Structure formats: C-alpha cells, structure tokens
Amino acid sequence: MPMREGRAASPGAGGGRARTRASHSRESVLAEAVRLLDEAGAAGLTIRALAARLGGGPASIYWYVSGRDELLDLAADSVLAGVLDAVRAVGEGDPIDDLRTIGETLFDAIVDRPWLGAYALRDTGTQPHSLRLYEKIGEQTLRLALTPTQRFHATSAVVGFVIGTAADMGQELPEVVASGQMDREEYLAQATAEWRALDEGEFPFIHHVVDEFARHTDRGQFRAGLDLLLAGIRLQAGA
Amino acid sequence: MPMREGRAASPGAGGGRARTRASHSRESVLAEAVRLLDEAGAAGLTIRALAARLGGGPASIYWYVSGRDELLDLAADSVLAGVLDAVRAVGEGDPIDDLRTIGETLFDAIVDRPWLGAYALRDTGTQPHSLRLYEKIGEQTLRLALTPTQRFHATSAVVGFVIGTAADMGQELPEVVASGQMDREEYLAQATAEWRALDEGEFPFIHHVVDEFARHTDRGQFRAGLDLLLAGIRLQAGA
DNA sequence: GGTAATATCGAACGGTGTTCGATAAATCGC
DNA sequence: GCGATTTATCGAACACCGTTCGATATTACC
C-alpha cells in the first residue's frame, strides 16, 4: 500500500541507458485527476493522459486504483472534502434552512465542476467524504419532529434532488456551448425560439412558460425546486 | 434522408465476388440499439455490436445518427413513446395525484431499463418524446393556482427529481450485483453491516436510520420523496 | 550487502469511435 | 431500358482507449 509522497519525476535521464522513474502518491494521482476533469470533463480523464501529467507510464496508476471507474469515484469524493469544509459550521440554525444551505453548497460545487454530479455520493461504501456528507445532511433531520422512516426518506430525497438536478444541469451543456461556438445566451435564445415555434394547441404549457424559460437561471430554478421539497419536509414535521 | 424499411440482410452472397449488402432503416437501428441497451447497458451499446446485430458494417450507422451520443439520445427518446402511451389518459383527476402518476410511470420505466435515466429528457430540442412528456407534466400544473414562474419551477423540480433519483438508483447497481456474484439482498446486508460498524459518535444519523436502510426498497424511497415534493407544490398552490 | 517488498514501466492485447473513398442499390429522366 | 444521379452501405484505416503482464528500478529490512 503506498504511503509516501512522491517527488517530482525528472524528465529523461542523462547519459546511459537507465531512465529515472517517476514517483507518485495516491494524493498526487487524485489531485492530477481532478485537474484533468476540470479541464476536459470525464471524457478527458484517460489513464494515459493522467500518466503523462504525472510524468510516468499508464500502468503505474493501477497501483493506486483498480481501474478508471474507481479513479473517477475517488476523484469526485476527494472534491467533496471542500464541500464538507464549507458546511462544517452549519447545523445550529433552523434545520430546514440548514438543509437548504448544505444543498446549495453542494449544488454550487457541481455547477463549478459539471463532471462531479455523475460521481458524487455514488457509493458511500468506498467514498468516505460522500458518506460524511450524507451523514451531515441526515443530521439536520434529527432536529425535526419526524420518524426514522421519514428522516431516511427526507434525506434521500434531498440528496436525490440535489445530485439529480445538478447532474442534469451539469451535463446539459451542449457541444456548441462547451466548444465556445455559441455562448449561453445565444443558445438559450435559440432554444426559446424553437419553443415559440411549437404548435400552441399541442404545447399549451410550453407556450405558457416560454417567457420564464427565456430568462431563467439554473441556480434560480434549482433553489425554487429545493424550496418546494423543503416545504414538503417542513409540513411533514409540523414545524 | 432514409425513408424506406430495410429488408433483412442476407448472410454472405452465394458464388461470385459480390456480396449482398444489408439494408437498414432508422426505426430498426433504434430498435436494435434499445435491445442492446436492455441486454448490456450503455457500455454494451457499441457501434460495432449494433452493426453486427443489423447484419452490416459499422460505418452504415452514421447515415442515421451523427455519432454514438446521438444514438443513445434517440434510443432513450424512442422508449419514452411507451411512457407517453401509458399516461395518455392521465389528466382528469386531482392535478397533484396526476403528477404523482406520471412521475411513478416514468420512474418505473427507468427501473425497468436502468440505462434510461442517464439519457431521458436530456435535450428536448432533439428528443420529441421527451418534449411531449415535459409538456404533459407541465400541463398538470396549469390546473393549479400557480403563477407561470411557479409552474415552470414546479415542472422542472418534478422532472429533476424523477430523472435524478431514478438515474441514481439505476446506476447504483454495483458490479457484484450486476454480474450475479451477489444478489440484491446479500449486497444490502453487507452494506448494512458496514453502516452498523461505523463509529456511533461520528455517524449518529446513520445509526438512527440503519434499520430503515436495511429494509428499504428503492420504489418506496422514491415515492416518499416524490410525495414530499408534491406536498410542497400543493402547499404553494394553496390547494 | 543480500533478500524481500513496493512501485514503476514498456509492450502488448483486445477493443473502441469515427472517417474516407469505393461501390452497391435505388431512383429519376429521357 | 439505359445512363446519370442520388442514396445507402461497406472495409479499411486511423488514432485512441483500458487493462494486464513480466521485467525491473527503488526502497525497506535484517
């Protein structure tokens, strides 16, 4: 099991046939993986690209992770350390407000890193920060007048809503926006025009909300939806 | 633009050097893609595997779709035709109950096809059934005393919750369960034991709900969460 | 200093998505 | 019916991927 911090790999050895080997650590592997994910998303994190960043060969990565799936899970989990730090002091106010604060902090982390939604809190058995964040969210429900069953369901609902909504928003970025060919406003204007062009008899709801759609922000939409869910939880707790 | 139904490809031509070519249609490409997804998930749908099923070469797929991403989007959308059929008659009862019915129908479709959650309702601009399902959900909110802004947010919240929760449940199947090495009960028992082994002082919520966790079903959890959200919407509408 | 354990590595394997130029098949116009 | 055009299919090739294996470099231990 690796346990020492690697020193930076030298580029190619000097004279002679031997070439100095790179030296890694679990932390540096995960940190570099996160950097690649931030730059190019999940598709950009390949074992070969990561190895090149670390200055070594692709096979060395397999000393630290069993495969690319585990690498992604651990990279996502490592980023949640920042979310946990940000919400460490939360938990003394109104429990519903505290749930909102934690939910929004997690959502913001996923908006900052669109790839995160697909991997955060996926497997709390192998993702320690995910487990702690799940516990942190759940603890707020302990301060509500709910049964254990209701607390379990409320916690899962908040997690499901936050992760699901943020992941959906995170990956909905179409290729023309991701590549810079079109900015978000242009894209939204085009999508709005497509909605306006739909048959009004067939799509009454879409015509009813198209002005909202034209000016909505993802964050506003997320907050409004989270508040609906939290209102339902507060109602159930009779608070 | 393809517009004719292909006939079945003959296996290798008889004597002579010419080989009869396969013949496809957009419908057969999507139908066969769905079959492969059902059998082996998104990872099992490769362009080569699909071409082999259709009895042709991989390059022919590119006549019908621009790439594998579009293939997945269209395959997912095509499956939503069945969901739309199932909810066609919904819309005459209590709007909140009708939202529940539609949400549960969509959830069940995703439970039946775990790969669906990651691709359903991703891009209503290129997925006609997704657009219609979004419209169907939104139309229920027209029968509630809500502003256009509130209706837009309520609809997005329901969609986000259903898709996000179902997608999370759909892909959470760990390799040992997917591969048959362990059934769901064994896996749940092991996960429960891991939860029970956690330090009680550090994870008070998890110890509080571990018995719920041990006996929960995904569907029950989903319904409970959806009801919390719907309760919030009903409260907002003052109904 | 020799042995054992840990960590790194290049090469190879088996696979993928996608494109290109060729060509088979269908359609159209005369 | 035939030649031209259009549509659809194809094999090969390209560039890349995840993963494993046996070799070996490096570190730790006695």
What does the model show?
Two copies of one chain form a homodimer. With 239 residues, the first copy, chain A, is mainly α. The first copy, chain A, has a domain of 147 residues: Tetracycline Repressor, domain 2 (Orthogonal Bundle). The first copy, chain A, is built from ten helices and no strands. In chain A, helix 1 crosses helix 2. Chains A and B meet through helix 5, helix 6, helix 9 and helix 10 of A and helix 5, helix 6, helix 9 and helix 10 of B. Chain A binds a DNA duplex (30 and 30 nucleotides) through loops.
Which radius of gyration of chain A do the C-alpha atoms yield? 22 Å
Assembly category: homodimer
Outline type of chain A: flat
Order of H and E elements of chain A: HHHHHHHHHH
CATH class of the domain at 91-237 in chain A equals: Mainly Alpha
What are the segments of chain A in which pLDDT stays under 50 over at least 5 consecutive residues? 1-18
User: Strand-residue fraction of chain A?
Assistant: under 5%
Structural class determined from secondary elements of chain A? mainly alpha
CATH superfamily of the domain at 91-237 in chain A: Tetracycline Repressor, domain 2
Supply the number of helical segments of chain A. Answer: 10
CATH fold naming of the domain at 91-237 in chain A: Tetracycline Repressor, domain 2
CATH architecture of the domain at 91-237 in chain A: Orthogonal Bundle
Give the helix level of chain A as a range of percent: 55-70%
Distance between the termini of chain A: 50 Å
Largest interface (CB < 8 Å): A-B, 58 and 58 residues
Biggest beta sheet attributes of chain A? none
How many β-strand runs of chain A? Answer: 0
Determine the mean pLDDT of chain A: 88
